[in-house]
Structure formats: structure tokens, C-alpha cells
Design a protein that fits this description.
The protein has helices at 5-32, 38-44, 47-50, 60-94, 96-103, 109-133, 140-161, 163-169, 171-195, 206-227, 233-254, 264-274, 291-295, 310-327. Helices cover 73% and strands 0% of the residues. By secondary structure, the protein is mainly α.
Length: 328
């Protein structure tokens, strides 16, 4: 057949070794050559100003307290969506072998691996498409995550409901739908769940909130690893559809779109909280708030000093953003 057990053992170890080499090189570059952000450096030198703060978030427990008290809707959006998406994502990736074996009649190992390679190539293409369009105002993080998750949910729902008919009469259609869903999984939630925690929180505990979100994501992967082992392929598709629809719901209600906002505004908001002062900056602009923050928490009612009409402001920011992207 052109392969044997010894060859496969060598191949998977070689793949891990190559990946380790790339990650090691990136780690060395990050540690020795990449400088910290200006926002982070600024806060490192604010010893006198920190004395005026109501909360001392240099204490780890106080950092978590402030993060949860004032940013819990955003943590729910980033961590909740990451958890839900990784249930579907890892549930499919970890069981891609059995899934493709069930979709391919002869279950030949080489044929199965060819389809897995094709699926991964399409997913990688989706990742680069997302990287190209995510900064355009007409797209943005929130829209891309909702659209990608919704299309993936439809693909899984269709595959699960009509699995028996498709498997018996149209197996190629079933394979196409599965691979098509991989494109939108990458060109959507798999990219956005990693980006949003870096933009929705202040510099002083951005890494903490990103770590919490990632922890919830890997918890979702663990849930999928344990639970999906006992499910049929048809049931896996239906469960993944329900999970992806849940991502759409959580994103719609709790995830703000800050594509056009200066992330330093998060730091100004935190400074006002720590000093017990009122905040009236751009982070209260309804354009950068989630529906929950606007209608339940009643934020966005404070007029920003010098703020222009919301629609005109959005139009101006959109024009500037597109000019910058087109010039690159």
C-alpha cells in the first residue's frame, strides 16, 4: 500500500519536531527582539499615580476582582465563545480520521489522509482570507464571527439531519459540505476567538483575560475529547450545529465590535475605575458596545466630549480605515 506502521511512527514524530523548531525560533525572537507596547511601558513607570488608585491590581486577587466586576460581559463573550467553538472545532479535528473513514466507502488510509490534507488546506485558506478582510469596517470582528459560526452551524445541521440519505446516495456532497464548513470555521470563529481578547481589555490585565478565555477554550476541547468518543458521526454533526448556533447567540448579545476603536481607550476606562472617577470617553460610544452593555448595563448614555453625530462618526472612521488598508 506504500506505507507501514514504522513509517507512520516516524512521520508524526517528524511533524512535531518541525513544529517545535518553528515555535522555538518564534519564542527566541519574541523574548529578545520584540519590544513591549507603549501602553504597558507607560504603566510600569506610574508609581506615584498608582498611589491614587482605589484598587491595587498589582495584587493578583484584586486584578481578578476588577476584571470580573467591570468586564464580565466581555469575558463571557470571549471565554464563552471560545469554549463553545472549541467544542465544535476540536470535536471535529480530533475525530477527523473516524469522520472521514465513515464518509469514504472503501476507508482506504491513503484516501482518507488525502481528504484530511485537502480539508486542512481549505481551512488554512480560510484563515488567510480572514486575515485579509477582518480589519475592513464592513466586516469587523463581530460580524465575521457571527457569519462564520452561522454558516458552519448550517453545514453541520444539514449534514446531521440528512446524514443517512447523503451517506448512501451522495457521499461526495457530504464530503464537500464538511470541507466547506472548515473554510468558514477558520474564516470566522477560529480567528476571532483569538483576536478579541487582545482588544477588549486594558493593558494591565489583558494577558490575564486572554489566558482565562483560552483556558475556557481548552476546557471546551477537553469536553469534546471525552464526549464525542461515545457519539456517532451523525450525532456529532447535530451537536456541533447546536454549539455553533450558541456561538452566534453569545456573540450577538455580548461581543462588542471595536474594530475602529483605539484599544488604548480600554486603559483610560480602567484608570477611571481605579481612581473612582466617572468615565466619559470613547468606550461609552454605542458603536463600540455590545447590546447587553447598551441596553442592560445602560452604558453609552454619556456624551463624549466633542463627539459628533454617531452615523457621521462611523462614516468618517470607515473612510479613514479603508484608506489605510488600501495604502498598505
Amino acid at each position: 500500500m506504500g506505507y507501514n506502521e514504522t513509517s507512520l511512527e516516524i512521520i508524526w514524530r517528524l511533524i512535531y519536531a518541525i513544529g517545535f523548531g518553528i515555535l522555538f525560533a518564534l519564542s527566541v525572537y519574541r523574548i529578545f527582539f520584540v519590544k513591549e507596547s507603549e501602553s504597558w511601558m507607560k504603566h510600569q513607570g506610574e508609581g506615584e499615580q498608582k498611589k491614587l488608585e482605589v484598587y491595587n491590581i498589582d495584587n493578583w486577587w484584586m486584578k481578578y476582582y476588577v476584571a470580573i466586576k467591570y468586564f464580565w460581559p466581555r469575558l463571557l463573550a470571549t471565554g464563552g465563545c471560545w469554549f463553545l467553538w472549541d467544542v465544535a472545532f476540536y470535536g471535529n479535528k480530533l475525530f477527523s480520521g473516524p469522520i472521514f473513514q465513515s464518509l469514504i466507502p472503501d476507508q482506504n488510509l491513503l484516501t482518507v489522509n488525502e481528504y484530511i490534507l485537502l480539508n486542512n488546506a481549505v481551512a488554512l485558506f480560510g484563515y488567510y482570507v480572514a486575515a485579509c478582510i477582518v480589519d475592513y469596517p464592513w466586516c469587523g470582528r463581530r460580524n465575521l464571527q457571527m457569519v462564520g459560526s452561522f454558516i458552519v452551524a448550517l453545514c453541520f445541521l444539514f449534514s446531521g439531519v440528512f446524514f443517512d440519505t447523503l451517506y448512501e446516495s451522495y457521499p461526495k456532497v457530504l464530503l464537500f459540505i464538511y470541507i466547506f464548513s472548515s473554510f468558514w470555521g477558520q474564516c470566522g470563529p477560529n480567528v476571532i476567538t483569538f483576536i478579541t481578547p487582545t482588544e477588549l481589555f486594558p493593558t494591565r490585565f489583558r494577558a490575564t483575560c486572554h489566558g482565562l478565555s483560552a483556558f475556557l477554550g481548552k476546557t471546551g476541547a477537553l469536553v469534546a475529547t471525552i464526549a464525542f468518543e461515545h457519539l456517532t458521526v451523525k450525532t456529532i454533526f447535530i451537536v456541533c450545529a447546536a454549539v455553533c448556533f450558541s456561538v452566534v447567540v453569545v456573540t450577538f448579545f455580548f461581543l462588542p465590535d471595536v474594530t475602529d476603536m483605539d484599544v488604548c481607550e480600554n486603559d483610560r476606562f480602567l484608570e477611571a475605575i481605579l481612581r473612582g472617577e466617572a468615565y466619559s470617553g470613547e468606550l461609552n460610544n454605542p458603536l463600540f458596545l455590545s447590546p447587553y452593555e447598551k441596553y442592560v448595563q445602560k452604558r453609552g448614555n454619556t456624551q463624549v466630549e466633542g463627539e459628533v453625530d454617531g452615523e457621521q462618526e462611523l462614516a468618517d472612521m470607515t473612510t479613514k480605515k479603508e484608506e489605510i488598508i488600501d495604502s498598505q
